[in-house]
Design a protein that fits this description.
about 425 residues; mainly alpha; 3 domains; 16 helices; 3 strands; about 70% helix; about 5% strand
C-alpha cells in the first residue's frame, strides 16, 4: 500500500462503508489531491528541465559543474518521475493498488545513495579554484564514492529480489545513504564558507545563502526525526527540498540559459493543473444528466472552451509578471526590439547613432554595451562572450558580417537568459540597416 494511504488511512481516504464523508475523510482527500497535483507537476517539470538542458548542450554551452550536475539532475528527475507514475497508477486503478514502472523504480533505488557523493563532487568542482590546496578534499570525495558504490549495489540486489544476509540490511543501507547525504550537506557548507571572498557579487552571495538555507532545513529535519516527525511532513520535505535545491542551483549556479522558459512553462502547467482540477470538481457534478446523458461530453467540452481560449492571454500575463517581478526585466524580447528601434530614429549622424545604440542597449540589458564595427574581432568575440557570461550578436550588412553588438556581463552576476538573447538578436537586426 502506498505511504500516503498509510499516512491518511485507507478508510479516511475512501470514506466509510456507507459512503459517509467525515471531516477527517475530506481533509485526507484534500491532502492526497494536493500530493497528486504536486508530484504530477514535479514529474513534468523535471522531464522538461532535462529536455531544455539537452537543448543547451546542443547549443555548445559550457556545462557548469561538469557532468556531475547533469547526472544529479537526472537522478532527481528519475525520483520525481517515479513518484508521479506511482501516484497516477494508484489513481487510475481507483485506489486498488499502484503499478510500479520497474526500470524507473530500479534506477531510482540504485541511484539514491549516489546523491551524497554527487553533491560533494559538485561543490568541490565548482569551488575548487577558490579552496586552499589540500589532499583532504580528494580523499573526502573518493571516500564518499567508496561508501556509495556498495550501498547502491546492495539496494540494487534487494530491489531485484536477491536475498540479503540479514533481514534489516536494506534499512541499514538506507540509513547509511541518509548519513552520507547529511555529510555531503556539511561538506558543502564548509566549502562555501572557505570559498567566500570580500569581492563576491550579490548574485553569488544569494546562491550561497539559498544553498545554506536548504542545507540547514535538511539537517534540522534529520534531527527532528529523532524526536517528532510525522510521516506526512516527511513526505512534504522529500518533495520540496530537492526541488528547491535544483531551482536555486539552476538559476544561481548553472545560470541556465532556458531558466525563464522553464519557469514560465512550469508555472503555467501548475496553474492549469489546479484550474482544471477545480473545474472538474465543481462543474462535473452538475453534468450528471439522465435524460440528456448523450450530451454530457459535449457540455463538458463547452465548459472547457473558455479555459482553452484564455490560455494564450494567461501565458502572456504570466510572462509579463515573471519578467517584471521575478527576473527584474524592463522589457520583453519584442518590447526591447521596439524600444531599441525607437531610440535610433532621430540619430543625425553615425556618431550619434552609435551613442544612442549603446545607451539604449545599456538601459535595456542593465549592463555595459558596445558596438564594435571591426569585422576581424567578430569571430574571436563569440568565444569571449561565451566564457565571460556576456552576449554578442553579429550585425550583418548586405549579407556579410559588418560588426558585433556586445553586452558585457552584469556587475551583480545575474545571468542573461534565453529571452535576453532574443532581445540581443533583435537589436542586431534593427541596427544592421542604420550604418551608412
Amino acid at each position: 500500500m502506498p505511504i500516503w494511504v498509510m499516512i491518511v488511512g485507507q478508510r479516511n481516504l475512501f470514506g466509510g462503508p456507507d459512503g459517509h464523508m467525515s471531516r477527517v475523510s475530506i481533509l485526507s482527500q484534500i491532502y492526497f489531491l494536493t500530493l497528486l497535483i504536486l508530484h504530477t507537476f514535479a514529474g513534468y517539470a523535471f522531464c522538461h528541465l532535462l529536455y531544455l538542458q539537452f537543448r543547451q548542450y546542443r547549443l555548445g554551452k559550457p556545462v557548469w559543474g561538469g557532468w556531475t550536475w547533469r547526472a544529479l539532475t537526472l537522478v532527481f528527475a528519475t525520483h520525481y518521475f517515479n513518484q508521479m507514475w506511482i501516484f497516477l497508477s494508484f489513481t487510475f486503478s481507483d485506489g486498488a493498488a499502484p503499478r510500479i514502472l520497474f526500470p524507473v523504480n530500479v534506477a531510482h533505488v540504485i541511484s539514491r545513495p549516489f546523491i551524497g557523493p554527487m553533491v560533494i563532487q559538485l561543490f568541490y568542482l565548482t569551488e575548487r579554484s577558490r579552496l586552499p590546496g589540500h589532499w583532504l578534499w580528494q580523499v573526502i570525495v573518493r571516500t564518499a564514492w567508496g561508501i556509495a558504490l556498495p550501498a547502491a549495489l546492495i539496494r540494487g540486489l534487494w530491489i531485484l529480489g536477491v536475498a540479503t544476509p540479514w533481514p534489516n540490511l536494506h534499512d541499514q543501507v538506507l540509513a547509511v545513504s541518509d548519513a552520507l547525504l547529511a555529510g555531503a550537506v556539511i561538506f558543502s557548507a564548509v566549502v562555501m564558507r572557505l570559498s567566500r571572498r570580500p569581492d563576491d557579487n550579490a548574485f553569488r552571495r544569494r546562491h550561497r545563502q539559498w544553498c545554506l538555507a536548504i542545507g540547514c532545513v535538511f539537517l534540522l529535519s534529520l534531527v527532528l526525526q529523532l524526536m517528532w516527525w510525522p510521516l506526512w511532513f516527511d513526505t512534504l520535505m522529500e518533495f520540496f527540498l530537492p526541488l528547491a535545491f535544483v531551482l536555486a542551483t539552476v538559476y544561481y549556479g548553472e545560470r541556465f540559459t532556458f531558466f525563464d522558459v522553464f519557469a514560465k512553462r512550469g508555472l503555467l502547467f501548475l496553474l492549469a493543473l489546479v484550474v482544471f482540477t477545480c473545474q472538474f470538481a465543481l462543474v462535473s457534478p452538475l453534468l450528471t444528466l439522465h435524460r440528456l446523458f448523450f450530451a454530457k461530453y459535449w457540455m463538458t467540452a463547452i465548459t472547457l472552451v473558455p479555459f482553452v481560449l484564455a490560455t494564450p492571454w494567461l501565458y502572456a500575463r504570466l510572462n509579463s509578471w515573471i519578467d517584471r517581478s521575478w527576473l527584474g526585466r524592463r522589457f520583453s524580447a519584442a518590447g526591447a526590439g521596439e524600444s531599441f528601434a525607437e531610440s535610433l530614429r532621430d540619430a543625425v549622424d553615425e556618431e550619434d547613432l552609435f551613442e544612442r545604440s549603446e545607451s539604449s542597449l545599456s538601459y535595456i540589458f542593465q549592463s555595459k554595451a558596445c558596438i564594435d564595427c571591426d569585422a576581424a574581432a567578430v569571430a574571436q568575440d563569440a568565444a569571449v562572450a561565451q566564457d565571460t557570461g556576456g552576449l554578442r550578436e553579429a550585425v550583418r550588412v548586405d549579407g556579410s558580417e559588418w560588426g558585433v553588438v556586445r553586452i558585457f556581463p552584469r556587475p551583480d552576476g545575474v545571468p542573461f537568459l534565453s529571452r535576453r538573447q532574443e532581445a540581443a538578436r533583435s537589436a542586431g537586426a534593427n541596427f544592421r540597416f542604420q550604418p551608412g
